[in-house]
Each structure stands twice: as structure tokens, then as C-alpha cells.
Amino acid sequence: MTAAAGLPGKLRFFSTSLARPASQLVKPPIQVYGLEGRYATALYSAASKQKKLDQVEKELSRVSTLLKDPKLSSVVVNPHIKSVIKQKTINDALVKEKLSPITINFMKLLAENGRLQQTPDVISAFGKIMSAYRGEVLCSITTANPLDEASLTELKTALSGFLAKGEVLKLETKTDPSILGGMIVSIGDKYADMSTKSKIQKLTRIMRDTM
């Protein structure tokens, strides 16, 4: 049996073994797909049962910083280093940081399953779940040039009109000169490409089709 085949059971065990009495997985506010989503969901369930969601989220930020250390990352990403050594290395680093048992045990699970390289994706997935837990609606705005404060304020006001009662807008702005102008907006499950580049591409297709 492969490690992947036994993963669901391991994740359920992780979630339930950290809470007494054992209970079912706590359902997250949103479903995050993929392997990283399954790990993040198990961690959310375990942390929720212990009422340590905020603490775990902060500790994962610390883990993310630690894994950027060249000395530690050289061990974690090296496929030639034995799993046992990786487990000890990451465990020693987290214990030194005095992180909580739930975070240390979770990272131990990733190490045992050979998934330490996926840690950034798992942390990102956990962040998405926590944003939904706080009622935040993620919104990404891409423009060719940085927006000034006046434009940003006007945009926030307009986007807030799409939110339901109790929801909070979490805005992320990006710049991509290749879109030439306009903007690309992604909010929740909605997506709108209003970039100049997109308009030019559409116009080019129309002209090509009429020729």
C-alpha cells in the first residue's frame, strides 16, 4: 500500500488524536481542494477543537519564515537526505522556537509522509480557510501600474457592494505591465478581465474572423 493510499486515515487520526474525546473532523467554512487542502483541513479541525486557530495561524507564519533559512531548507528539499534526518531536523528547529505541540505534530506528519516541500502550499491553503473563518472575502486586483490612494479607495467602495452582511473585504493589489492598461479583478468566485491586453486580443479575433 502506498503512502498516499493511507493518507486520509492519517489525517483523520491527526485531527481526532489531538482532541479528547475523539470526534469527527470539524468542517471548515470553505473547501480547499488538492493535497494541500486535505492537510490544511485536518489542521483546521485539530486546531479548532483545541481553540487554537489563531495561535496555529501565527505559528505557521513562523514556520514559513524558518523554511526560508538556507541551512534548514537545504535539508528539507534535498531528496537524497533520509526522511528520519529531515524529521529530526525540522522537529529540533520547531522545538527551539517553542511552538505548540499541535504545530510540531503537524509538521512531523508532513515530514513522515515526505511532504515537507509542500509546506508553503499547505500554509497557503490554511490561510484561505482562516480568511473564510473570519468572514474575509479575498479580492485580487491586477493593474499595469500601481493605483493611487484615491483610485484604491473608490475601488474598495465599489467592491464592498458585492459583499454579503458580515463579510469583510481583503484586498490584494498586483502590478503587471504586460496587461497594458485597465485591470483584472478576482473576488470570491467571480473573475473579470477588463485589461487593455484582453480587449486588444478580442478585437484581433473579431477582425480575423471577419476577414
How would you explain this protein's 3D organization?
The chain is 55% helix and 13% strand. The chain has a four-stranded mixed beta sheet with strand order 2-1-3-4, with helices on both faces. Helix 5 packs antiparallel against helix 6. The longest helix has 16 residues.
In short:
The chain is of the alpha+beta class. It is built from 9 helices and 4 strands; from the N terminus they run αααααααβαβββα.
Present the secondary structure layout:
Layout: H1 7-17, H2 34-49, H3 53-66, H4 70-76, H5 83-96, H6 101-112, H7 119-133, E1 136-143, H8 149-160, E2 168-175, E3 182-187, E4 190-195, H9 196-210
Parallel strand pairs: 1-2
Antiparallel strand pairs: 1-3, 3-4
Helix pairs in contact: 1-2, 2-7, 3-7, 5-6
Notable traits:
4 strands; 211 residues; alpha+beta; 4-stranded mixed beta sheet; 13% strand
Radius of gyration: 21 Å
Strand content: 5-15%
Helix content: 40-55%
Q: How widely separated are the two ends?
A: 59 Å
The major beta sheet can be summarized as: 4 strands, mixed
The number of distinct helices, counting runs of at least 4 residues, comes to 9
Structural class: alpha+beta
Tell me the series of helices and strands, N- to C-terminal: HHHHHHHEHEEEH
- What best-fitting shape do the alpha-carbon axes yield? elongated
Major sheet strand order: 2-1-3-4
* Count of strand segments: 4
Mean pLDDT value: 86
Report low-confidence residues grouped into runs of 5 or more: none
